[in-house]
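Researcher: I'd like a structural prediction for the single chain below. Treat it as a standalone chain; there are no partners to consider.
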Amino acid sequence: MSQTILVINCGSSSIKFAVVPEKTTLEIESKIPRFRRSGLAENLGTPEALLNIIDANGEKTSIAIPDADHQIALTHILKTLGDEQLIAIGHRVVHGGEKFIRAVQINTEVVSAIRDTIPLAPLHNPANLLGIETTLKLFDDLPQIAVFDTAFHQTMPPQAFRYAIPDDLYQHHRIRRYGFHGTSHAYVSQRTNHLLGSSNHGWISAHLGNGCSTCAVWQGKSLDTSMGLTPLEGLVMGTRSGNVDPSLHLHLVKTLGWSLDDIDQLLNKKSGLLGLSGVSNDMRTLSELAKTGHASAALAIDVFCYRLAQSVAAMSCALPRFTGIIFTGGIGENSAEIRAKTLALLPHFNFHLNDAKNQKMVRGAEGRVDQGNHKSDDQDNDQNDHQGRQIWVIPTDEEGQIAQETRGVLGL
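Model: Treating it as a single chain, here is the predicted structure.
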């Protein structure tokens, strides 16, 4: 019976969970598609509340849990674990502010500090806290660890994280760029370094899903990232606008009479791929529509790739040496089209995509899709000049990263 970590990602009306075994995906020699016990409790607090479970064989079952709250849902999740020997619980927490630069064991002081960051993440941290407080009641005998999306980016230098606004707003209100998707960027950069046998690399990691961000990673440390104070800054996303003119808010207030809540809904829920296309926030749907001549779907894809290429170019400024790019997330891992379109916009960066490798990259697989070989740059410092920068596809494993950091805090 293996010792496992229960990973919890709690939302306002949902709970994602995964049971991660002792051996993580970071250091296995061959990354292959595999299943671990996982699931999603959704629509909590409503008659439609449902618990979806995927077992270790990949079989999915659904259990109706009408009107269940988070505690009831977690009790049902506990029942699904069978004979798993849990040794700890790792919690995803979106925002750790400047206080948390790494994962920490949860105690009353940590809970209080997470609560203090709610103004920085009002949509996420209250839900994350709810999950923590609920599991502390249900699993009071287990160590519980908070793993922060923002922690990986706390190595950014001031020129990367400061906004050009009055110093008082930073010193007294901590308004700065924090960045998110830290567990994903950390995992894929570490995984790629492991495959190359060296950490002496400069990567631009592109996490592309419904939420999207890029990150410049040098020797395993984040030096810059595209998201900022909130997850709205940066790239075009599924329903989020990414960067817009900061005066757009004032313009909409003055010309249309909109409220700040209206504008917040527009930029977070009605923009991005959905807003541009007018039909969907799903890249797969847009790709199919674009093939039929749907002009707005094609435009949404073009804007997405252009803004991504812009961000890759910008992130390269942070790196002492630019080894290559890592694509991850649902779009990054699975869309050969998006990888090709984006790299085609960066001809001066010496990327040489191998079209056959790119097209053959299947869901769950990892590897290089450029025309170079698999050796480390340490063996040939001129490799980028001769063969082009490396292009990798690495499936992210945020649950595995959370479990790894949980074990690290506990010294396991």
